[in-house]
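User: quick one, sequence for these tokens?
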């Protein structure tokens, strides 16, 4: 509800997930929907890195820019009061899986700027759980009893990843969201 008091807002359970969404697909949508059902507010963070994005552009022969990705995911959830899309520029941060401390500090600055404190981090990467626990426990904008929740790491619910779509777009385009297809249909990926 839009008119919640400050005390109610403070008591709300807030979750967060991170992703490139290159491209947004139904597995992402499922992950977001499952996560949002466990919190009062879910922050979906679109991560971008100009160097990594250039590599993805070269691999796919298509420039799915951070702005386009933001528009796609924002349109997908524009009528959902429980979901808010944020952006995190990771340019210059040591590339994953290294650089956790530096990246976590960038997340904390983003949360500070957005005036958000989180209670739960959702991930579908088992290898990330311990790093979230270690590095996020030190952040100012993460509540002290925060949790890390692992959701469907084997992708049993929807067996697809954005990497698989990028590798074989024609075979996997059925996994794209309608809005994702709208942005991709004119790319060289789908001739």
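Assistant:
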């Amino acid at each position: 509800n839009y008119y919640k008091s400050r005390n109610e807002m403070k008591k709300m359970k807030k979750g967060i997930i991170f992703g490139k969404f290159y491209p947004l697909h139904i597995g992402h949508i499922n992950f977001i929907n499952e996560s949002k059902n466990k919190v009062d507010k879910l922050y979906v963070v679109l991560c971008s890195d100009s160097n990594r994005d250039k590599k993805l552009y070269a691999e796919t022969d298509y420039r799915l820019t951070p702005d386009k990705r933001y528009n796609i995911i924002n349109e997908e959830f524009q009528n959902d009061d429980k979901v808010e899309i944020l952006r995190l520029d990771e340019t210059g941060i040591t590339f994953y899986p290294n650089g956790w401390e530096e990246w976590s500090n960038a997340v904390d600055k983003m949360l500070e700027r957005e005036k958000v404190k989180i209670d739960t981090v959702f991930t579908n990467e088992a290898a990330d759980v311990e790093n979230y626990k270690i590095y996020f426990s030190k952040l100012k904008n993460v509540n002290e009893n925060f949790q890390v929740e692992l959701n469907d790491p084997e992708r049993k619910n929807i067996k697809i990843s954005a990497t698989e779509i990028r590798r074989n777009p024609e075979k996997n385009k059925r996994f794209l969201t309608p809005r994702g297809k709208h942005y991709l249909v004119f790319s060289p990926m789908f001739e």
